[in-house]
Amino acid sequence: MKYKILITITVTLIFLSACSPKYKLVQQKIPPEITTSSSQCLAQCETQMSTCKNSCQTQHSMCLAEQAEFAKQQYPKQLEIDTAALEAYYAKLSLYESQQRGYDAQSALYLKQAHEYKHLCKTALFNRASHCANAKAANYQYSTLSRPTAPEKPNKTTLEELTISSQEQCNKKCGCEQSYERCFISCGGKIETKRICVSNCD
């Protein structure tokens, strides 16, 4: 009965949550009273933001080009690193295969012993208790065997991957919007943050 009540409450809460209004925060810019002075001030803000964005785009494009060239120069070194990692992998793989053969042989031996002793445990006329103990021992030894772990083959880095990785440090954000907002406020404008309903609104 308690479980049915809990399930009912859970379903009800999920239903209410799905139907409840959802909100998001939005910024609203309220311009100052329109005068010649305020209009000139706001126009200057727009010009500054446009200049900032153009400069930011130029810097970002230059950074992408520089990092692409850097990646091209570093690629031969990366290939050497990948080659060394691959050689180390094959050495580990050879050891793993040897350990796996040993594991398989030991597993087969313990399973064979367990099967033979189990049969003797059921059918032998003498030393049955000893055979039963040996069967348990063989099963235990089998269960405690540690299976070797196969090494993970390293991936070969492509020039494209190295370029993308290098270009990730190129910053796309230059603070143009924040500078514009400060300029907008200095011109007498206001910026208000409001919560508006975006779904399941009444």
Report on the structure:
The protein is mostly helical and 202 residues long. It has one domain (22-199). 70% of the residues lie in helices and 9% in strands. It contains five helices and two strands. The chain has a two-stranded antiparallel ribbon. It is elongated, with a radius of gyration of 36 Å. The relative contact order is 0.20.
Brief overview, please?
With 202 residues, the protein is mostly helical. Helix content is 70%, strand content 9%.
Question: Which structural traits does this protein have?
Answer:
elongated, two-stranded antiparallel ribbon, 202 residues, single chain, 70% helix, mainly alpha
Task: Explain the layout of strands and helices.
Layout: H1 2-19, E1 22-30, H2 36-123, H3 128-143, H4 159-167, H5 176-186, E2 190-199
Antiparallel strand pairs: 1-2
Helix pairs in contact: 2-3, 2-4, 2-5
Unreliable spans: none
Q: Care to count the β-strands? A: 2
What is the spatial order of strands in the main beta sheet?
A: 1-2
Biggest sheet details: 2 strands, antiparallel
Q: Number of helical segments?
A: 5
Structural class: mainly alpha
Which term fits the overall shape?
elongated
- Provide the helix percentage: over 70%
What is the CA-based Rg, rounded? Answer: 36 Å
The amount of beta strand, in percent, is 5-15%
Alpha carbon gap, first and last residue: 36 Å
Order of helices and strands: HEHHHHE
Mean pLDDT: 89
Overall number of structural domains: 1
